[in-house]
């Protein structure tokens, strides 16, 4: 099925780009560095997950 509307934002493409970026970063880290990275990111995040 083809759509005729132009997407302004492609969520799947964005998600794949972010996953690639993060995988590249994490591939160079040890397990301890990865844990420290995510702990630091958790504290830096401004947006709260909604439920």
Task: Please give the structural blueprint.
Layout: H1 11-27, H2 31-44
Structure keywords:
51 residues, mainly alpha, 61% helix, elongated
Overall description:
- The protein has 51 residues and is an all-alpha fold.
- Helix content is 61%, strand content 0%.
- The chain contains 2 helices and no strands.
- The mean pLDDT is 88.
Strand content: under 5%
Helix/strand-derived category reads mainly alpha
Q: Number of helical segments?
A: 2
Determine Rg (CA atoms, Å). 16 Å
What spatial form do the alpha-carbon principal axes imply?
Answer: elongated
Q: What is the distance, rounded to the nearest whole angstrom, between the alpha carbons of the first and last residues? A: 33 Å
Q: What is the number of E strands?
A: 0
**Uncertain stretches of 5 or more adjacent residues:** none
Biggest beta-sheet profile: none
Series of H and E elements = HH
Gist of the model:
With 51 residues, this protein is mainly α. It is 61% helix and 0% strand. It contains 2 helices and no strands.
